[in-house]
Design a protein that fits this description.
The protein is of the alpha+beta class and about 150 residues long. The protein has helices at about 20-35, 55-65, 105-115, and strands spanning about 20, 40-50, 75, 80-85, 95, 130-135, 140-145. The strands form 2 sheets. A 4-stranded mixed β-sheet has the order 2-7-6-5, covered by helices on one side. A 3-stranded antiparallel β-sheet has the order 1-4-3, with no helix packed on it.
Length: about 150
């Protein structure tokens, strides 16, 4: 799943869009003052012990995202900043295979720290992105990042 989709989304109609909350307005202003900053990006890392069935994990992730409007929030501007909930859309869960690295778990953590440093443009898709990393046989990790 990638919230870093480079295609700009069209602004939602006035019927579906609603104003930002006061904390969101602060984040919007911060993003405009420093558009390349990742200061407002938060990440989560989960280690999964045991074999992972990637298609099942992907379906479960789709279900969670489909049922959680906050993960499908999109932002844009009309007469001011607006937000709307984007309907679920097709995406695939990228799998990063790090099992060939000398220290796979360290490589997974380093990869996730690098991702945390990447900004998320809230005007270009979901304010959420996630990945699945294969690190060692029987161990995987999931990483997600989102604007807070």
């Amino acid at each position: 799943m990638t919230g870093a989709d480079s295609r700009p989304l069209k602004n939602a109609s006035q019927e579906r869009a609603f104003p930002l909350s006061m904390p969101q307005l602060g984040l919007w202003a911060a993003q405009h003052m420093q558009p390349g900053s990742s200061a407002c990006v938060t990440a989560q890392y989960s280690q999964i012990l045991g074999a992972i069935d990637v298609p099942v994990f992907e379906r479960a992730s789709r279900l969670v995202i489909g049922e959680t409007e906050a993960l499908r929030l999109c932002f844009g501007e009309a007469a001011g900043p607006l937000q709307w909930v984007q309907p679920p859309r097709a995406w695939s869960l990228p799998l990063i295979d790090l099992s060939d690295q000398p220290e796979p778990e360290s490589a997974a953590v380093a990869w996730m720290k690098n991702q945390l440093a990447q900004p998320i443009d809230p005007r270009r898709g979901y304010a959420f992105a996630g990945r699945c990393c294969d690190s060692t046989p029987g161990t995987s990790s999931g990483a997600s990042r989102f604007i807070t």
